[in-house]
Structures are given as structure tokens and as C-alpha cells.
Design goal:
Order of helices and strands of chain B: HHHHHHHHHHHHHH
Radius of gyration of chain B: 26 Å
CATH class of the largest domain in chain B: Mainly Alpha
CATH architecture of the largest domain in chain B: Orthogonal Bundle
CATH superfamily of the largest domain in chain B: MetI-like
Low-confidence stretches of chain B: none
Number of domains of chain B: 2
Shape of chain A: globular
Mean pLDDT of chain B: 90
Radius of gyration of chain A: 25 Å
CATH class of the largest domain in chain A: Alpha Beta
Largest interface: A-B, 40 and 39 residues
Mean pLDDT of chain A: 89
Oligomer: heterodimer
Distance between the termini of chain B: 51 Å
Largest sheet of chain B: none
Number of domains of chain A: 2
Order of helices and strands of chain A: HEHEHEHHHEEEEHHEHHEHHEEHHHEHHH
Shape of chain B: globular
Strand content of chain B: under 5%
Number of strands of chain B: 0
Helix content of chain B: over 70%
Structural class of chain B: mainly alpha
Number of helices of chain B: 14
Helix content of chain A: 40-55%
CATH topology of the largest domain in chain A: D-Maltodextrin-Binding Protein, domain 2
Number of strands of chain A: 12
Largest sheet of chain A: 6 strands, mixed
CATH topology of the largest domain in chain B: MetI-like fold
């Protein structure tokens, strides 16, 4: 009895086990189908990861032109763009145009031959002279342009409370050493120089990775920055340690950060800067991307009077007047079929330097064209931010976004958080991040 | 919206109806067999579909998971025991195991103690007061863990000194004239892990109280009376008469909470995502799978968890059988 029971239990389990084992997935079974969906009609599907105000701004710029040309745009916005575009390409269910929020996936698809090159679609000479440096390179794969940057954001910004900053006689620093001496000066006057916060729920740590990217970019320049993002330069390297050293000086020096080192991990990435608008200001500088200068993050009364209350300078270069790359981002438009006349027309329109006047007026969208008419922007603050990008020597995309997920949204965040809040030494953090880089 | 509702109704009708039709057809088919065979086969016909479903949805994934735990990140090549050795070799994962163990040791026991205490005390209140007290304790059960996370973030929130404190605890601390405390970053003696445990207790004690309270009310009054006549004091009655009679319920609650704690994910994810040395294996599993895209390590974690849970399950099943036998 005991025996039979044992066997009757065991048998189905072994049967299932036999079915289950012996079959691992195939490595890299990528099938290459025909490029493009051969749509030649007048309806153009545009997939995008944009949402909210930015999405509305782009629609406001593009929809009237499409209407004029008799083109119907079918917008497919998605919160989950990166996964969705990959799935749709695998299923050969292609949109006509996709607006990629980061170059990584776009370059993957271009390398696999899924995207059409834009070199003979667009006026390349005009683009070369008008686009912000670095933005065409971001969309280039194997020497050909596949992604046209059609919106821009800037991260290398330091915001300050305008009146208090100016009346104290402080000046925007021209180099990192000047930034450090300005920090020391403010501290020696008994005031707090910085507001700093990296709390972001389960994503806590990402603003600290932005700081590191910023400093690596400034110290190493775009080429070494790219090497670091591709892990050709380790985290445990003199360049990253130099960046960490500067961050340490700013963030960990007693009296430099409102609330001290311990509070950095509990201050929210966006609202951490708000004490600088109190009187007297809780701090004098706050580094964050251009998105914070909007309703919902900066206090409402500040946003309503933004030009008088908020000042902004670009995070300074390593040496005054030296190479000054800027960290930022933008959406890259990719074309799936070179035979799609309507989609090509829209892309050509998007590539002109005047595209976006309507969207720019909403304050949610910035043009990547250096010669875009600044009068279109609604506030001086946005004009200043745009000028910082237009005047840079190169615009570099967020490095952690381009790293593998295990690092870029995993160990890099956690390592920085652990280091800042004191659970890990810098050595441990850098080594853990290096070790977590997926073998490939 | 309309289409979605229609779809939902169709799914329910087709699902339930389909199952009914399946059983009816199978029943008829077996009914066609000669008498002896009908009796022999009928039980299997009834248990078969359920067994197949369990094989498909439970046993097959379990075996596949064990299988993948010996393979690499995208399950394309075998790596032997590498996933296990690299996990157990990393200081981070060992600290994660220690935290999980701490949760397992503390939370189920405290849940029982608090639940029992509240149940006994509430039992002595007037009926209306009892209902009110129990409702209040039970209420957090109705709140999702993510909602609880939002609430407790406001309890532990910390702003820099001089700023308005929106967190309850820091509002009190600063009102008393001290500097605000970054509650979730206090790693001494694993204090921040205990702060997270408080959240789970807050959410779970109601569950334990309801079951234990029902069990206590089920204790026959004559046994209590007999004990009183024999001169037992209240404490003796509680420990020697009531507790032995509700032992079964206590064990069931204990096992349920223990298994729940081993799988714990949401509270830690929402509050700290494992930062500040508060990681537990549920969160580590999630991060291996969905942040690091490492099927191998994620599977290895699940296998270890499975191995740890099996003895508890066996104990529970055994206990259930002896209970049944005793009836």
C-alpha cells in the first residue's frame, strides 16, 4: 500500500519533469522580416513614450501641419514604450514613426535593419549646421542617421534663488573649482550652499547617478564618458574616483547640504530644492533637470513668477572656457519604411529649425536647433536653459539610462544610495557596481 | 467600457459553463462504460481535470524554476551551481538572508501574541465596545500594502531641520525640541527593519485577532466553569484551559503568517526597496528578475525559498491531519 501510494505520487511528477527539462531557450533567435509595413496611405501611426504636457506640446506643433497636408496622424502614446516597441517589431506590427526616448533601443533596431536611414530623407547639411552638437551623433548608427532628435531636455542645470543669490553678490561659477570655492564661500558666511535629495521611492538613488554622470562627463569629456557608459572604463577607475571625490566634497562636507549627509537619501529628488525659495533661503543651489522648474515641483507662487524668483546656470566645465559638454536628452524620431511618403513628409517637417513654435509656447518642449527662435519660449528661465544646451560643446544622453538595467537602474542607484547614507564605503560601492555588470 | 463588461461576463459564463459542460460530458462518457469500470474510473474523471490544472500551473512551473536555477541569466546555457554560489558568496545577499530570518523569527510570534491579547481583552468588553475595538484593529487588513506604504511613509517621513515636518514621528520629535530623525536610515540593531515589521504587524494583527477571537468564543463555557470551581485563577484558566483548546487555530495562524513573511515583498519594496540594509529575499528576487533580468539568480532564490518553506508546509499538513483524526 505504502509503495503504490509512493509511486502514484511520484509518477505524474516525473512525467511533468521529463516534459519540462531538456529544453532551454534558443540563444538569440532573431528573425529578420521585411523592413517597414509598406504603408503608403495617408494615415501615419506615431508611437511615443512621451506623456502629459510634453506630448500635448508635440501634438500642438505637428497636428496642424499634418492636417494641412491631408495626413491623419494616429498617435499611440505608451508609458511602456521601450518594451512595447520591441514586442511590436518582433511581431512585425510596425508603426510608421517611433519617437524613441533614448538612443539605445533605436540603435539596436537600426543595427538589425528595422529602421530606414534618414540621410537622403532630410537635409543633412542644414541639420549639421543647426542642431545642438552631439544630438545628430546620438541618432547615428554605422555612419548613418536613423534617429532625428525632435525634442530636448537638459540636466546639467543648477537652480538658485535669484534675488537672494544676486544680492549676496554671488556669481555663476565658470569652472568646477569656482563652484567649489563658491560653495565654501556660502558656507563660511554661515549659510547652507546646497539642497540635495535623491529619494524617489523604489527608484531612490537616480539623482545621485546624474551627479556622477555630470562630473564624469565634465572631467572626462564625451569620448571617455561613452567608454564609461559602455563599461570600457570601470567604475573603479581614476576618472570615476575623481568625480566621486568632487561629489564627496560637495555633498559630505559638514554644513554644505541642508539637513546634512544623512538627509540626502530621504529628501525627494524634486521638492528637495524648495527650501531655497524661503526667506532667508534654506540653501542657495540645487542641481536638477529642467523638469523641476514647473508646476507640481517648484512651489506654485515661484512658478507663477519664475523669471524673478528663479535663476539658473549651467553646471560649469572642469576648467573655465574649456570643453563644456552638457548632459541632457530628447526624443529621437525613427522611420520604419523608406517608401512611406506621408511619414517622410512629417519627418522633414520635424527636422526644420522652425518646427515647434506652437509647442514651445506651452513651456513643456524645447527645440534641439541652436537657431530656434528663442522668442517662442514663454519665460526667460526656459530661454536660459535652452541657451545652456545650445552653447554646449556636446549634448550627452543620460549614461545610466544607456547602461544595462542591472547597473543603470539597479546597482548604480543602490550603490550611490548605500555610499551616501553610509552603509557602504566608496570602494565597496564601486566594486559592487563593476561586479554587477552583466557578462555578455 | 461596455465591451469590457461584456467580455468579463462572457469570460465568467464561458469559463464556468465550459467547466460544467466538460464534467457533464466526461460523466456521460464514463457512464457508457460497463458498471464495474464506471465505478473504477469515475473518481479519476472528477479529479483528473483539477490534477491536470495543478500540474500545468504549479508543478510544471516549479520544476521549470528548479531547472532554470542552474542556467544563466537568459536561460540559454547551463552554469551548474554558479547562481547559488555567487548569491551565497555575496555579502549583500547574506545580509538579506539575515533580515529575512529576523522577520520570520519576530513577526509571526508577535502577531499571535498581539492578536491573542486583543482577542482576550476585547472578549471582556460590552458587545458594542467589542465590535468597535475589533473593527478598528481589523481595519488595516482592508488596506493594500502599497496604500499602507503611503500611510507609513507619512509616519516616518523626514525633512531637513528647520523645514516643516510632514511626518508624524518627526513632528512629535521636533515639537519636543529635538532634531528630526531619518527613521528609515537607522541601521543600528536593524532598527529600520523593525520599523518595517511594525507595518506588517499593523496590517496582520487584525487577521490573527479575528481567528483567535472566534476560537476563544468557541471554547465551551463549562470547561471554564469547571476550572473556576476547582479554584483556578484567571491566568491559569487562560494558559491551561483556553490556550490548549485553541492550539489548532494558533498553529494555523502562525504557519500562515510565517509563509506570508517568507514571501514578503510589497512593504519593503514600497518603503525602501531594500536600501539601508533592509533587503529581504522577496525584494531581492524581484530585483534579480525585473531589474537585472537574471532568470538564473531569480530562480535560485525561489528554489531556496521553496526548500525553506517545504518543512513548514509538511508540518502544517501533518498538524491538519492529526486535527482531523482527533475529531
Amino acid at each position: 500500500m505504502r509503495r503504490t501510494k509512493f509511486f502514484t505520487t511520484l509518477m505524474p511528477i516525473t512525467a511533468v519533469a521529463l516534459l519540462a527539462t531538456g529544453c532551454l531557450n534558443d540563444a538569440g533567435s532573431t528573425q529578420s522580416g521585411g523592413a517597414g509595413n509598406g504603408n503608403t496611405g495617408n494615415t501615419v501611426e506615431i508611437m511615443t513614450g512621451m506623456g502629459g504636457d510634453l506630448f500635448n506640446a508635440v501634438k500642438a506643433s505637428l497636428d496642424p501641419y499634418a492636417k494641412e497636408q491631408g495626413i491623419t496622424i494616429k498617435w499611440s502614446p505608451s508609458d511602456n514604450f521601450n518594451q512595447l516597441i520591441v514586442t511590436r517589431v518582433q511581431g512585425n506590427n510596425l508603426p510608421d514613426i517611433a519617437l524613441f526616448p533614448q538612443p539605445g533601443i533605436m540603435k539596436d533596431l537600426a543595427a538589425k535593419g528595422k529602421l530606414a536611414p534618414l540621410d537622403d530623407v532630410l537635409d543633412m547639411n542644414a541639420l549639421k549646421s543647426s542642431m545642438t552638437p552631439g544630438t545628430l551623433e546620438a541618432g547615428t548608427q554605422d555612419g548613418k542617421l536613423y534617429g532625428l532628435m525632435m525634442s530636448m531636455n537638459v540636466k546639467s542645470l543648477v537652480f538658485y534663488p535669484k534675488q537672494a543669490f544676486e544680492s549676496a553678490g554671488y556669481q555663476a561659477p565658470k569652472s568646477i573649482p569656482e563652484l567649489l570655492s563658491l560653495t565654501d564661500k556660502i558656507r563660511s558666511e554661515g549659510k547652507t550652499p546646497w539642497c540635495l535629495g535623491i529619494e524617489s521611492g523604489p527608484a531612490t538613488g537616480w539623482p545621485a547617478t546624474d551627479w556622477m554622470e555630470e562630473l564624469v562627463l565634465k572631467y572626462g569629456g564625451p569620448a571617455k564618458y561613452d567608454d564609461w557608459v559602455a563599461h570600457k572604463i570601470n567604475f573603479d577607475s581614476p576618472l570615476v574616483r575623481q568625480a566621486a571625490g568632487t561629489f564627496e566634497k560637495i555633498a559630505f562636507t559638514e554644513g554644505n547640504v541642508l539637513g546634512g549627509r544623512k538627509s540626502i537619501s530621504s529628501n525627494n529628488f524634486g521638492t528637495a530644492g524648495n527650501p531655497m525659495f524661503r526667506n532667508p533661503p534654506g540653501c542657495f543651489m540645487f542641481k536638477q533637470g529642467n523638469f523641476v522648474a514647473a508646476k507640481g515641483i517648484f512651489p506654485d507662487d515661484v512658478v507663477a513668477d519664475i523669471d524673478n524668483r528663479v535663476g539658473v546656470f549651467g553646471f560649469p566645465p572642469a576648467t573655465a572656457g574649456g570643453e563644456n559638454p552638457v548632459e541632457g536628452g530628447g526624443d529621437l524620431a525613427g522611420l520604419f519604411s523608406k517608401d512611406n511618403a506621408a511619414a517622410k513628409k512629417l519627418l522633414q517637417y520635424m527636422s526644420t529649425k522652425d518646427f515647434g513654435a506652437a509647442g514651445a509656447k506651452t513651456g513643456a518642449w524645447m527645440s534641439p536647433h541652436k537657431d530656434f527662435d528663442l522668442a517662442n519660449y514663454p519665460t526667460n528661465t526656459i530661454r536660459d536653459i535652452a541657451k545652456i544646451a545650445y552653447g554646449s560643446t556636446s549634448l550627452a544622453f543620460d549614461g545610466s539610462d544607456a547602461m544595462p538595467g542591472a547597473v543603470g537602474s539597479g546597482s548604480f542607484w543602490k550603490g550611490m544610495t548605500g555610499w551616501i547614507s553610509g552603509q557602504q564605503s566608496l570602494d565597496q560601492a564601486l566594486k559592487t557596481i563593476d561586479d554587477s555588470w552583466p557578462a555578455s | 467600457m461596455l465591451i469590457k463588461s461584456i467580455n468579463a461576463v462572457l469570460a465568467v459564463v464561458a469559463g464556468v459553463g465550459g467547466a460544467l459542460v466538460l464534467f457533464w460530458v466526461l460523466n456521460r462518457l464514463v457512464g457508457l462504460l460497463p458498471g464495474k469500470w464506471e465505478d473504477r474510473l469515475k473518481p479519476y474523471v472528477y479529479i483528473g481535470p483539477a490534477f491536470l490544472a495543478i500540474s500545468l500551473y504549479l508543478i510544471y512551473p516549479a520544476i521549470q524554476t528548479i531547472h532554470f536555477s542552474f542556467a544563466n541569466a537568459d536561460s540559454t546555457a547551463y552554469v551548474g551551481l554558479d547562481n547559488y554560489t555567487s548569491l551565497l558568496g555575496s555579502a549583500g545577499f547574506r545580509s538579506t538572508l539575515v533580515n529575512t530570518l529576523l522577520w520570520i523569527v519576530i513577526v509571526p510570534a508577535v502577531t499571535i501574541l498581539l492578536g491573542l491579547g486583543i482577542a482576550v481583552l476585547a472578549d471582556r468588553l460590552r458587545p458594542r465596545a467589542e465590535k468597535l475595538a475589533k473593527t478598528a484593529v481589523f481595519m488595516p487588513m482592508a488596506i493594500s500594502a502599497v496604500g499602507a506604504g503611503t500611510i507609513w511613509r507619512f509616519v516616518y517621513a523626514a525633512n531637513p531641520p528647520g523645514e516643516p515636518q510632514i511626518g508624524v514621528q518627526n513632528a512629535i520629535v521636533t515639537a519636543l525640541g529635538f532634531d528630526p530623525v531619518n527613521w528609515l536610515q537607522i541601521t543600528d540593531f536593524k532598527f529600520n527593519s523593525f520599523e518595517l515589521m511594525v507595518m506588517l504587524l499593523w496590517a496582520q494583527v487584525g487577521f490573527s485577532m479575528v481567528l483567535l477571537s472566534a476560537a476563544i468564543k468557541g471554547v465551551p463555557a463549562d470547561t471554564l466553569e469547571a476550572a473556576r470551581i476547582d479554584g483556578a485563577n484567571e491566568r491559569q484558566i487562560f494558559l491551561k484551559v483556553i490556550v490548549p483548546q485553541i492550539r489548532g487555530t494558533i498553529i494555523t495562524v502562525f504557519v500562515t503568517v510565517t509563509i506570508g513573511v517568507m514571501k514578503l515583498f510589497d512593504i519593503v519594496y514600497v518603503m525602501t526597496n531594500g536600501d539601508f540594509d533592509t533587503n529581504v529575499i522577496g525584494v531581492q528576487f524581484f530585483n534579480e528578475l525585473f531589474t537585472n533580468f537574471d532568470n538564473g539568480k531569480a530562480a535560485a532564490i525561489v528554489v531556496m525559498l521553496m526548500i525553506a518553506i517545504i518543512p513548514i508546509m509538511i508540518y502544517q499538513v501533518r498538524h491538519f491531519r492529526t486535527e482531523e483524526a482527533g475529531r
